Amino acid sequence: MLFDLEAPKGQQGGEGCVFLAIEPLTMLSFTWNAPPEIPLIRIQRTHVTIHFKSVSTQKTHLILKHDGWGTGADWLSARKYFEQAWGQVVIPRLIQRFVSGPINWTHL
Fold it and tell me: Is residue 9 domain-resident?
């Protein structure tokens, strides 16, 4: 998944990340990398697993697990970055997508 196609290669998004497992309608797992602002650990990969559990015809419970973290200041910075990204950007946009329909990315 690339976020900035105008950025230099290696700084465009999730370059080099791969899907680890897919269970249709129930689970998605993939590797992920740190943002370009933390270059020393960007070449490392963490793991993201998302489980989806249907609660009703209108509700799904989502469990997101992001693991594989190293130690040290850069890893702590990456964890803080992703705590904010998952909680304030990614999950809210996922909810918005299912409440309001597809997101128009040209207006963000």
Answer: no
